[in-house]
Design a protein that fits this description.
Catalytic activity (chain B): N(6)-[(R)-S(8)-aminomethyldihydrolipoyl]-L-lysyl-[protein] + (6S)-5,6,7,8-tetrahydrofolate = N(6)-[(R)-dihydrolipoyl]-L-lysyl-[protein] + (6R)-5,10-methylene-5,6,7,8-tetrahydrofolate + NH4(+)
Family (chain B): Belongs to the GcvT family.
Largest sheet of chain B: 6 strands, mixed
CATH architecture of chain A: Beta Barrel
CATH superfamily of the largest domain in chain B: Probable tRNA modification gtpase trme, domain 1
Distance between the termini of chain B: 46 Å
EC number (chain B): 2.1.2.10
Shape of chain B: globular
Helix content of chain B: 10-25%
Largest sheet of chain A: 7 strands, antiparallel
Subunit structure (chain B): The glycine cleavage system is composed of four proteins: P, T, L and H.
Strand order of the largest sheet of chain B: 11-12-13-10-4-14
Structural class of chain B: alpha+beta
CATH architecture of the largest domain in chain B: 2-Layer Sandwich
CATH topology of chain A: OB fold (Dihydrolipoamide Acetyltransferase, E2P)
CATH class of the largest domain in chain B: Alpha Beta
Oligomer: heterodimer
Number of strands of chain A: 10
Domain Aminomethyltransferase C-terminal (chain B): 308-390
Order of helices and strands of chain B: EHEEHEEHEEEHEEHHEEEHEHHEEEEEE
Structural class of chain A: alpha+beta
Strand content of chain B: 25-35%
Largest interface: A-B, 33 and 28 residues
Helix content of chain A: 10-25%
Radius of gyration of chain A: 13 Å
Number of helices of chain A: 4
Strand content of chain A: 25-35%
Chain lengths: 129, 396
Amino acid sequence: MAGPTAQFPENLQYTAEHEWIDIVDPQSPATVGITATAVEALGDIVYLELPEVGATIGAGTVVGEVESTKSVSELYSPVSGTVVEVNQAVIDDPAIVNSSPYTDGWLFRVTVEATGDLLSAEEYAAVTG
Amino acid sequence: MTTDPTDPTDRQGPLHDEHLALGASLTGFGGWLMPLRYTSDLAEHRAVREAAGLFDLSHMGEIEVSGPQAAAALDHALVGNLSAVAPGRARYTMLCAEDGSVLDDLVVYRLAEDRFLVVANAGNAALVARELVARAAAFDAVVADQGEQTALIAVQGPRAEEIVVALVDPADGADATTVREMRYYASSAVSFEVAGERVDALVARTGYTGEDGFELFVPVGVAPLLWRTLLAGGAPLGLTPAGLAARDSLRLEAGMPLYGHELDTTTTPFEAGLGRVVKLDKVSDDGTPVPFVGRDALAARKVSPPSRVLVGLRATGRRPARAGYGVVLPEAGGPARRVGTVTSGAPSPSLGYPIAMAYVSPELSAEGTELGVDVRGRVEPVVVVPLPFYRRPQQS
């Protein structure tokens, strides 16, 4: 992708597949979304398929999909755990993910039983070039 | 999530700096680095449907064929009857191989009795130029590849006429009338006044969006100034720069084929529902049939039942089919049977539901036939619908 280099929030951790996860405290559910880089590559997001509340998901496995007008990408879970909440607002209006990928555009919350290969903001910035 | 890197060998067109200045996301297409989107695919798509979009199409190939036998050479080289096209008019046609397969789909503009402009897809431009040179060799005609010198800018949408007319040299009232009264698939030389300079353009009322609109062929040197002047003048009317993503969703809604998707070297015009472009009965000046390249194969294909037919599909769910996905026939008590392949698919911005074009078995091509598409392992229900998906409202 050409375009301006995105700035990635330092408090988040990232996957090489362009998800972010906010683990505030390992005992509490973490919040997962997709990065500005992913959003820029996809274009306007028009449909999201997210895991069900109560689903057990594994780190690095496909747990949903993100459809834009131009393409579709699979959504990978950054951690293993149980889904405790999905963001109904983005299901109803996927454009929120385009406008606010790190805040209102979060996708789901999951308990953290084990983490996958997570990257710091700096490491992720290196991956995305 | 994955992202596609661009290819470092992609060429930059004459408007590259304009795209960078507008903050475009760039993508490789047909060997060129082109704007995929400026801000939002959906906003750019809507601008074309509701006001107007500005497209850089400088990646397209322009090949001029001129000389006393230019028309006869094109009648031999292409499947259409180009000698029947009046000067100032244009025709959608195809370059086929001897076996009848499609090497490219083209728009050919007859500029004068002895001069034609052949517009080819970017990825096929070199092949088309080579084939035209070879096929015109026995004729008194000259084939000249003008792609390097020519920029192509399109203004598409219901406000396009106003925007283009505003650029006509005010000293030339005749040219303004020419633009206003130009018919669909017509073209004319028009002089614009761009920042005080006179710019001679070939203006055609053609496009690839399903809307009214114009395509402006100009020398590459004046293209950036023309682009900026169009944008400045058109912005108050809603003119929005639009990238290839919007162009693709617009043409898909309009049911227009894209080479490499609906058309390729495994396809003849008949499977694509475009058999009407093949003029088997065209004759030369002395009344004898023209043995054009691919004629025998296409004549045989016309009378034999096709093995597959291009159809439109409308999804009843929300997950869009994408190019390459399998079309299946859901069968009670058994696994779904593969009956076709999706060639293009997207969520339709104008219609609000997923649409696709696909090749399917002829017995399953009737309107209303209920089929499925294997969308990454899960079958989504679709129904066969007529093309185009979208037709612009007729002007009152």
